[in-house]
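User: Okay, second chain of the day. Same drill as before: sequence in, structure tokens out.
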Amino acid sequence: MLPVVALVGRPNVGKSTLFNALTRSRDALVADMPGVTRDRHYGVCHLGPRPFVVVDTGGLSGVEEGIDALTAQQVRLAIEEAQVLVFVVDARDGLLPQDQGILGELRRSGKPILLAVNKTDGLEEQDALGEFARFGIAAMLPLSAAHNRGTDDLIAAALPLLPPDEDESQPHVEDDSIRVAIVGRPNAGKSTLINRLLGENRLIVSDVAGTTRDPIRVPLERDGKRYTLIDTAGVRRRARIDEGVEKFSVIKTLQSMAASQVVVLMVDARENLADQDLTLIGHAVEEGRALVIAVNKWDGMDAYQREQCQRTLERKLVFVDWAKTVFISALHGSGLRELMRAVVRAHASATLELGSSDLTRTLEKAYEAYQPPLVRGHAPKLRFAHPGGSNPPTIVIHGSRTKHIAPAYRRYLENFFRKRYKMEGTPIRIDFRDGDNPFAGRRNVLTEGQQRKRQRMIREMKRRKK
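Assistant: Same drill. Structure tokens below.
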């Protein structure tokens, strides 16, 4: 296990900016407004001689109610699991009473503390540090996280305080977990689902829509399989998005879908499928990601409501009838075993390895059963097939006149291959390629005898016209 360093401080002092600088990433959402970060966000810093885990936390505002209270609870969990605490303060705002309260809580933990005085660019460093000298912390480090200045000194100060890592000498094991992105509209139950699967309150859950803003990656091991669950921000219609932070959250959600292997779309059974849900499904299909539909809050409905919900789902999801629909209750845990099995089957189908000879034989059977419509009196010929990639499975088919193949015949081939290889929960892409004409661009040069014959024919045609 790598040692853990937690970044703690007031809202809007630059913790997320420092997190991105230490992890050399843009995973943490950064905005010039307080309260953007709420959940714990983990990353690994590889800049020093030994790596360590960095935890970005929400700002401690001193308010113990609503979202602020849930954020403070997540910060305290990060303080408990960290070996070194980095207390981030704002040099431009100076020392505030909130900083005194946070420092008292950090000292009660009994763990080593580093004071990171951020936003010192353009200021006299000694004056900025002098104001915070009353804290009595020996390790005071001026830095500018936005300009990546002072981060090396921070790493150098933190490394001696970290405990030795017993597993540090072991070789790095490549991550073979299944990356699962949980997406949906606000308040669909995405964070509740992840907390239920983990068996702990890892993510903040609230009735307030838009609680989650950053995409949070959480490892999970269940039934002998490893997963990386990605909790994403709820996506609303573009017309209802008015905050810049929410716009960036939506962009991060779409990026998380592209980086995942399986997308689980959370749908509120009481509201059924909305246009925004269908838009998210369209994004998943365009990215070629395996898809599972999770209909949440199923337990609070009577028999008539369930029947109406199922009929609506069947009608609206006809264009992705290959995706498995699972009815669950994230709050009570019903249906979660079936959900994870559907995720595993979708991942296995998306990463299935296909052989060229078997694909060609399957193509021949499909062609014999149903040939494509004629194009100008000629039928397109499909000669052989070979795999073109996975996630999604891509099949490359070579033949002639393939540019004129109708979309209906493409869907027929997709369904034929899906039934043959028992693929569930993943789209299939078929790439048609025309064979090169060896005589294209070549001019037929007549021999002397052919030229004399051509001249005789021309003279004969002129004579007949007279």
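The first helix runs from residue 15 to 23.

User: Thanks, on to the next one.
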